[in-house]
Amino acid sequence: MPRELTQNRIQKIWIPSKDDKPSMPRISHGGPHLANPPTVIVMVGLPARGKTYISKKLTRYLNWIGIPTKVFNVGEYRREAVKHYSSYDFFKSDNEDAVKIRQQCALAALRDVKTYLTEEEGQVAVFDATNTTRERRDMILEFGAVNDFKIFFIESLCDDPNVIATNILEVKVSCPDYQDCNKTDAMEDFKKRIECYRMNYQPLDPDQYDRNLSFIKVIDVGRRFLVNRIRDHIQSRIVYYLMNIHVQPRSIYLCRHGESLHNQQGRLGGDSGLSTRGRKFAGALAKFVEEQNLKDLKVWTSQLRRSIQTAEALNVPYEQWKALNEIDGGVCEEMTYEEVRERFPEEFALRDQDKYYYRYPSGESYQDLVQRVEPVIMELERHENVLVICHQAVMRCLLAYFLDKSADEMPYLKCPLHTVLKLTPVAYGCKVESISLNVEAVNTHRDKPEDVKRGPSTLIRRNSVTPLTSPESNKKPRMEGLEDTIFREVTPTQLTLCSPSHTTLALSTQNLKKCSTECHEPPQLCL
Amino acid sequence: MSTEQKELTQTPLLKIWVPGMGSSLGQRRGSSRPQFTNCPTMIVMVGLPARGKTYISKKLTRYLNWIGVPTQVFNLGQYRREVVQTYKNYEFFRPDNEEAMKIRRSCATNALKDIANYFTKEQGQVAVFDATNTTRERRGVIISFAKERGYKVFFIESVCDDLEIIEENIMQVKLSSPDYENYDKEEALVDFLKRIDCYKLSYVPLDEEKDRHLSFIKIFNVGSRYLVNHVQDHIQSRIVYYLMNIHVTPRSIYLSRHGESELNLLGRIGGDSGLSSQGLKYAKALAEFIRGQSIKDLKVWSSHMKRTIQTAEALGVPYEQWKALNEIDAGVCEEMMYEEIQATHPEEFALRDQDKYRYRYPKGESYEDLVHRLEPVIMELERQENVLVICHQAVMRCLLAYFLDKSADDLPYLKCPLHTVLKLTPLAYGCKVESFYLNIQAVNTHRDRPPNVNIARKTEEALQTVPEHQ
């Protein structure tokens, strides 16, 4: 006899009734078997080839589609072990002490990878380092085989001196290693650093040595790709993502439709038109767009009337996406929050308990929305300047992707009416400018109520999406056995190469130590 | 900046908001079709014979048409067979056969002419030029042709040196071609191999360096490696993704609906009811059937709705729930009987019969919406091997239309009765279908298109084809 089914209260998922608890043996834990067993993505490439950029962006994407992913940047481990960077001499292949330290940093990072994947429920670890020698890669493959991890290599190849120079200026000269250097000196030193690696660089060889490995070579910032032996769904998705991203400067503008008649009445969902103020906003938006003076702006709307009315005022072609429609409120559509509280008090309370997973009866949840909106994200990556005129919940989903926000934070992100968010990629992250167009509107934001208790834990199913924030990189990476070698690198002669203006050695060291702990901020990271 | 804005009205069939009083979708700034590309694209196959070019051409065309991009294959071999009525032997393909060369060149010209016609007069968006195209010269001709007319070109080259695979290909699709009607198998194989040799001498593969300005994908050894160069737009990116997900490992896909539901019995559409007693019987019969098939590593997928989950539960194996497999959302008509829809929304009911594929229920979905929703499911089905999909009538029609290459017109009327499993097995260039009725009685839920679809029709005419129910 098939088991009786009940629908769990928050997510409205049908489950066998005896087990109204999270883990269900029959419902398979692996929707489209996203990452089973765990995967280690191994970056490969000379310095300044965009490895860290790719690592962080890919990690953000994977976390947003619900795959717990974390970056392990070996450069950070090295900076922990060698508190002060003196010069490129550290990277010379005949510098035995340094070679030992670097080896141990890599091992420490791999140890942490193992912990993340086996004890912390991670599914994908991104090992961000040059990994330019066969010896190093063979060591990683061995590590993968021993622990039953899949290994996927991403190699970035680029010989365009302009691209390299731009990279160095954007993210290297401002990194902790070059705190005390001026730009020119930093640039010079870094170029010599690259040369240290180049001599021993053995690119992946698809014809012979590496023909059985799974990897993608990204050539000339995405102009060309060589893809070898994709073995599962997650590798296929990663390849698709990498082939769609680009580094052209551009901005993405997110805004909601103008204030609608339903907004004014405090009603949710529905398909009403704009209020007078909403129409005023549409006009203001048109003016704003004109003033931005953009090349080739694409405009996207949902298929709901209020967003289309807003777009119409711009007097330019626009594309309607059903995927951008507001979250479906099911039986609660067009009700006011008061009416919902009156007629469906239990539902009302459940939503506050877990707003991300909560699915309206016969409607949708934020979790459903994220899955629905994923093709829009992929298309946004392909394009350049885009204005997306959408809705509150949808905008929160999109924003969570760009700003690396978790499922917990997403339903409470502030996306007020009549405000445009301008997102511009910069270094490893995203700059946000919030521009209010100065047209009055109601406030539709509901904060999380104070007295709400989290209900029974929700079912995590892998084919339903649950965005995570990319975890903090290991601030204090464990560096066992390295204490005795830590300060060996600091010598007066090497210091002066970098910082002619600094006089006192002791003082400098102290300053640098202080600075290096302050500088664990997103943009300044390098190898 | 004017504060006066044209009022929007919603088109009755597609439920799309457009400016002005007219229901014309023609002149408006908003487009509701996803913009895959802004100009026609020629996909040009490249490769020696028996490298899977026609297989890829047909499969890709089927996929693009299903997702709504009008696509057509132009197979040069067919043009040649029109002109040279009987194939003698491989000597036709010898590079020193001047007369044959002239014929072959003129066939290519005709095919290109037809492609131009397809784009300009038949609203085609993608044309797949299926031929060997193994020389720089031939490819140069195509590139100039496209450049003159503003078409984009994307090359798909299939490279394979595994003799086993090549011989398998020849056995599967060449020996049965019209060319070899009067040959016996061994002779045909020998002749075909000599044919391949004729091409080998002048074959110049696409080159990473020399062809770096072209957009192409090189597929090595049936997908173990790909080289992708200069993808220009969305459609090319989708094509690359599709090609990287398909495989040729033998497998079967089983499609079935949930067991009969309580709402089915009452003749009501949609909703989220449980199985009726007959439905429960079916679930058990399905379990037995699956066991009997002895399928290796079968994956089972269901939707999020109670009736498919109950059916899956009876199998006693792990299964995965996909929201994307949920039945079409009938919006305001959810849980109504057809008689009720006719009574309360006669106009909507008529519009649906007029264009069942594009018709969107008020506050609901259309079959067209369903196809977009199901695309990730299809992509994953391509990646997988043996899969059983337990879904719903409209959803199953969409999936079936993809596998059997059915048009948008045919799709909403495909027969997907309850309590019947369809087993699909890829074969040669298509798909073999076996239908298994598990002998458990169920109501019929199939409603044919009635003869009168006019809005002004009488109730009896509207309800003429409604199947019986309680």
Layout: helices, strands, pairs:
The complex is a heterodimer of chains A (527) and B (470).
Chain A: E1 5-7, E2 14-16, E3 39-44, H1 51-64, E4 69-73, H2 74-81, H3 96-119, E5 124-128, H4 134-147, E6 150-157, H5 161-172, H6 183-198, E7 214-219, E8 224-228, H7 233-244, E9 252-256, H8 261-265, H9 276-292, E10 298-301, H10 305-312, E11 318-320, H11 337-343, H12 345-353, H13 366-382, E12 386-390, H14 392-402, E13 419-426, E14 429-436, H15 492-498, H16 505-518
Parallel strand pairs in A: 3-5, 3-6, 4-5, 6-7, 9-12, 10-11, 10-12
Antiparallel strand pairs in A: 1-2, 7-8, 9-13, 13-14
Helix pairs in contact in A: 2-3, 5-6, 9-10, 11-12, 13-14
Chain B: E1 8-10, E2 17-19, E3 30-31, E4 41-46, H1 53-66, E5 71-75, H2 76-83, H3 98-121, E6 126-130, H4 136-149, E7 152-159, H5 163-174, H6 185-200, E8 216-220, E9 225-229, H7 234-245, E10 253-257, H8 262-265, H9 277-293, E11 299-302, H10 306-313, E12 320-321, H11 338-344, H12 346-354, H13 367-383, E13 387-391, H14 393-404, E14 420-427, E15 430-437, H15 459-462
Parallel strand pairs in B: 4-6, 4-7, 5-6, 7-8, 10-13, 11-12, 11-13
Antiparallel strand pairs in B: 1-2, 8-9, 10-14, 14-15
Helix pairs in contact in B: 2-3, 5-6, 9-10, 11-12, 13-14
Keywords (chain B): ATP-binding, Hydrolase, Kinase, Multifunctional enzyme, Nucleotide-binding, Phosphoprotein, Transferase
Active site (chain B): 258, 327
InterPro entries (chain B): 6Pfruct_kin, 6Phosfructo_kin, His_Pase_superF_clade-1, His_PPase_superfam, P-loop_NTPase, PG/BPGM_mutase_AS
